[in-house]
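Entry for the shared binder. Reason: the reviewer on the internal report wants the predicted structure included alongside the sequence.
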Amino acid sequence: MPLPDTEPSPPLGDPGDPHRVLSDTDLLALMLFTVWATRTGRTLPPVPVADLTAEELEDFWADDQLEQPVRARVPAPRLGTDR
């Protein structure tokens, strides 16, 4: 996905070449998708990102942690006790 007000720059090399050089924007997008996929275990369909529907992107990027109630990890201090 291109950043606002920028022209997407084409990758240097053939699309099938694993050693082709990506633009900074494409590399950043690849890193973000890879980190999120690794963290969540979700995968994207094997199509160009530009061909994905809004629903497919929302399903991929949805954060399940937002749907769960927030629980304190550290117990709150008790009032009136000396420690």
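Summary line for the report: Helices lie at 24-40, 54-61.
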